Structures are given as C-alpha cells and as structure tokens.
Amino acid sequence: MAFDSFLSGKNLTGNIPSEITSLPGLFEIWLDVNLLTGPIPDFSGSTDLKIIHLENNRLTGELPSSLTNLPNLKELYLQNNMLSGKVPSSLVNRIRVLNYSGNINLRQGGRSRNNTAIIIGSSVGGVVLLITIIACCLFINSGKKRRSDEDEFPRILPAQKLVSSLKHDTASETAHSFAFSEIEDATRKFEKKIGSGGFGVVYYGKLKDGKEIAVKVLTNNSFQGKREFSNEVTLLSRIHHRNLVQFLGYCHEEQRSIEARSILVYEFMHNGTLKEHLYGPLIRGGGSIGWVKRLEIAEDAAKGIEYLHTGCIPTIIHRDLKSSNILLDKHMRAKVSDFGLSKIEVDGVNHVSSVVRGTVGYLDPEYYISQQLTEKSDVYSFGVILLELISGKEAISNESFGINCRNIVQWAKTHIQSGDIQGIIDPLLGNDYNIQSMWKIAEKAMMCVQSHGSMRPSISEVLKEIQDALLIEKEADAAREGNFDDLSRSSLHSSTNMGMGSMDLGATESNVLFDDSLSQPSAR
C-alpha cells in the first residue's frame, strides 16, 4: 500500500519517531515548519521514499548514512535547522534537489587528502599562527554572509529548480523568468491598469508573440522577502487546472532607479470578474448573465476549488474566495484567481502571521474564534458567492438588505427559512429559471454558510448539487423544445423531488499542465 505523511506546520515537538521510518510504501514525508528536535532518524527501512521535507525545525546532529542508500530519493530539504558535519558527496551527486542552507555547521564533504608534514621554524611560528587565526575569522564571516544571502534567495530559483509536489509526481516544473524590460515593453511601461487589490496592481500587457497577459506588480508588503516570493513562484508553477487562472511566469529584478520588483504574470481573462457581471458596471447596459450561465460559472469555480482541496499536496486553502476572484475568459468560462497568494501571505516561512487575507462578508465566522482557516472556510465563502449568483447583490451592503441588516447571509436566511425564495431572486433574471433548481442552490448555499465548519458540506458535495441543478435546467429546456423523452422525465422527477423544509438551517447566526478532462487527480 502506498501512502504519504503530510504534517507540515502542525507545531509538532520532540524527536522524529523512529516508527515512521519503517512504514512500507511511504513515498513522501512532510514534517517541515514544526518544532522537532534531536537527530534525523535512520531511514534505511524506507526504500520507497522519494521526497523528504524536514526544513524549518530544530534538528541537530549529523546526516545519517542511510540517506545515501535510499534508491528512490529525489528531493531532500534540510534548510534552517541546527545540523552539523558533512554532506556526503555521493548524496549531492545522486539526488536532484538538495537544500541544506541555514545549517551553519553543515558543509559539503570532499575527497580526503593525504596529510603533509610541515615543519615551521620556531622563529616565525608565532607570526604564522596569528596570520592563520585572522584569516580564518575573515573566512568564517564571509561564509556566514554567503549563507545568509543564499537563505534570502533559496536554491529553488531560478525556474529550472522548481519542483512539483503533486501526488507522486516528481517531474520538474518550469516557470518562465521574464526580464523587467520584457514586462515594460509588454505593458507599454504599465500604461493600462486593469485591477488592484491587497497584493498589488494588475496591468494589461501583450507579448511580442501576441499573447495577452495580466501583470500583477506586488506591493512591498505582499511578502516578507525573497524567500516568500520564491516559494510563491514554486507553488504557482506546479498547480495547473482548466478552472484556475494560468500562471505564466515571474520577474524579480533590482533596478537602480526603482525598488526591487516582484511581478507575477498570468493569462489575461477577457471578460473580467464575476462581480462585475452581477452588480458592476457591465450590467448597466443590459449585460446581465442568465441563470444557466450563472450555474455554469458556479460549476467551473467549484471545480477549481475542488482541485485545490483534493488534487494538491499539501492541500491549498484559498482563504480569500470572493466574486472578484472568479474571472471569466473570452468564452465566459470561469477560473479562480489569487489562490496561491493567500496561502503564502498567511503562512509565510514560519507558518506564523497576524495578517488574515480574507474579505469581510466572505470570511468564515469560525475564524474569529479559532484563528484558523480550513477547507470549510473556503466552502463558507463559496456559499456567499452562490447567494450573490441567486440575488445579484453584494455580500455586504448598507442599502440592499433593509434596516439593521448589512449581510447577505442573514438577509437570505430570513427569506429562505420562511419559504420566500422569490424575495431573494435577482429581478434581472426575469422568469428564465426553474424554481426547483433555484431552491436546490439556495438550500445548498445555506448549508455552506452554517456557523460551524463541521456542519458544512465539502466543495465536492456542493459541486454535485450545482451539476444536478444544471441538469434540471437543461432537461426543462429540452421539455419546452419537445425533445423530452420518458427517461429524461424520470430523471427530472428524481432530481426535483425534494421538500422545501428538508434542511436544518440552524437557529442562530452569530478559509505538468493538468486538464481535468484528461487527468483527474487521484484521491489522497
């Protein structure tokens, strides 16, 4: 049986238990960003291991010789511990990625040299010894500086060192490194601003080959340093899905006349954000999207979030899911954006941050108690988006929800509990919807925004409900067109046979190019 151990950032203490090293079929170990101490155990019994993450702990001692004997080991991360001794040359030469920076007393070993007897005259011995001591001090200080510089910009950049950590996939990923001059040319020196947010400003650009791009220039406080930016590029480079905005590359150059630029380059999404199509400037000219298209957008977005939750190792929590982070391409297909930025901003290198990358109205109410964001936090945010799709209203408003109510969740819950779904349906939809599909989505949205995460469905369950609602609409269309056979009637009947009061809403309300049509991620 094959399995992996993913315990990153769990505040684990003590020594690494020796039992973990004897587990058969273990492919990956992720014990990074904890408080583990003691030596690295003997991994000689873990012959299937491909990836070992032990960085950012307090491990001590020398590297066990068993590491050099693991036949399948491809990646070893040891940085920022208190390890000592020598890294065997055989290990350096054999595995693809080895990072041991930040261990002051750990160095790469070399070939042994024959001792040479040197006789120094007593008259000059004291002088030579003094010079040697001074030279050693200068060398050590220089070495520390070099190691500090390496820590600031880790070995995983440039792009050729980017590595995938998707399930059992150890193939190298690549991300294009753009020169700053290329970015300036593509954007005509940042002429056209198309968006902005907490992470920076987004500009429109076009490359020399005609490809349109969105250039996100990150604000100075988006990352704590080059390491975080490097980690972000690594994360984005290994995550690809048809319902996630495609990451194309990065730029990080220090210019004489400007501050260091940290830039991320994405595909350009021609039809803007979902927010703009629901209650933004795009609807003023009669451009409101119909109910079926809204369901299709919800389906696309749910697929993107499902991939982050179930198709990536470790699981990626979006943390700032909202209608302005759902973008629409030229065919009006939806893709989720900013999924990597939120994770890095919250977790950083040390998994400690006082910053929450969330938005009022979408933020999981449990966060205010637990200070933690989980997959169910994303589900809460997605439930708010479903309510926006139904109503065409903003998540938070001083005017839309009546006296003493600013929150779409509270407003919608009052109507749905009383059976008045018509009171929350967007008037711009007219009568172009099936009431059964509308009820199905409204009820599922209410389940998503339950106060307690344990009461919320998974994003996969939400996706299934959206697809059922789409089936209801399509079969209803077929019936109106006279193409509705007995089988379709039976299917429609089973899909819509539900009671309006079947859901407990609660009494109170007080976070590679893989194409899912070609390669679905395997279950964890």
UniProtKB/TrEMBL annotation:
<keyword id="KW-0472">Membrane</keyword>
<dbReference type="Pfam" id="PF00560">
    <property type="entry name" value="LRR_1"/>
</dbReference>
<keyword id="KW-0677">Repeat</keyword>
<dbReference type="Pfam" id="PF07714">
    <property type="entry name" value="PK_Tyr_Ser-Thr"/>
</dbReference>
<keyword id="KW-0675">Receptor</keyword>
<dbReference type="InterPro" id="IPR008271">
    <property type="entry name" value="Ser/Thr_kinase_AS"/>
</dbReference>
<keyword id="KW-0067">ATP-binding</keyword>
<feature type="transmembrane region" description="Helical">
    <location>
        <begin position="117"/>
        <end position="140"/>
    </location>
</feature>
<feature type="domain" description="Protein kinase">
    <location>
        <begin position="188"/>
        <end position="471"/>
    </location>
</feature>
<dbReference type="InterPro" id="IPR017441">
    <property type="entry name" value="Protein_kinase_ATP_BS"/>
</dbReference>
<keyword id="KW-0597">Phosphoprotein</keyword>
<keyword id="KW-1133">Transmembrane helix</keyword>
<dbReference type="InterPro" id="IPR001245">
    <property type="entry name" value="Ser-Thr/Tyr_kinase_cat_dom"/>
</dbReference>
<keyword id="KW-0418">Kinase</keyword>
<dbReference type="InterPro" id="IPR032675">
    <property type="entry name" value="LRR_dom_sf"/>
</dbReference>
<keyword id="KW-0723">Serine/threonine-protein kinase</keyword>
<keyword id="KW-0547">Nucleotide-binding</keyword>
<dbReference type="GO" id="GO:0005524">
    <property type="term" value="F:ATP binding"/>
</dbReference>
<keyword id="KW-0808">Transferase</keyword>
<dbReference type="GO" id="GO:0016020">
    <property type="term" value="C:membrane"/>
</dbReference>
<keyword id="KW-0433">Leucine-rich repeat</keyword>
<protein>
    <recommendedName>
        <fullName>Protein kinase domain-containing protein</fullName>
    </recommendedName>
</protein>
<keyword id="KW-0812">Transmembrane</keyword>
<dbReference type="InterPro" id="IPR000719">
    <property type="entry name" value="Prot_kinase_dom"/>
</dbReference>
<dbReference type="GO" id="GO:0004674">
    <property type="term" value="F:protein serine/threonine kinase activity"/>
</dbReference>
<dbReference type="InterPro" id="IPR011009">
    <property type="entry name" value="Kinase-like_dom_sf"/>
</dbReference>
<feature type="binding site">
    <location>
        <position position="216"/>
    </location>
    <ligand>
        <name>ATP</name>
    </ligand>
</feature>
<dbReference type="InterPro" id="IPR001611">
    <property type="entry name" value="Leu-rich_rpt"/>
</dbReference>
